[in-house]
Amino acid sequence: MAVKEIVLKDLDVSEFIKEKAKEISSLVADGVAINALSGGVDSCAVTMLGHKALGDRLKTYFIDNGIMREGEPQKVKALFKKMGVQGRIQA
Question: Is Ligase set as a keyword in this record (predicted)?
Fold first, then answer.
């Protein structure tokens, strides 16, 4: 998989999402993938792309490390559950 520069004016977000989901699906094939969700922007984006590509074959884990804001782990879990991503929170 080659890395390519994407110029903002040329970016078609819908097409980008489809392309990346297809790449993920191709790499995982019939298997499953494990995903670490921190609650930050990057891991949230990766989680949603993986979920779009793999559905229930994406196993998402969120670890409450004890240094997040009060109630933040529950908010992360609730947000992703609302979007159909079934994850596990480890305290």
Answer: yes
Whose tokens are 């891991």? That residue is: 43
pLDDT per position as a tens digit, 10-26: 889 999 999 999 999 99
Helices 41-54, 13-28: inter-axial angle, 10-degree rounding = 70
Domains and CATH numbers, the chain: 14-90 (3.40.50.620)
- Residues contacting residue 6 through CB under 8 Å, at least 6 positions apart: 16
- pLDDT, tens digit (0-9, with 9 covering 90-100), for 36-68: 998 889 999 999 999 999 999 999 998 888 888
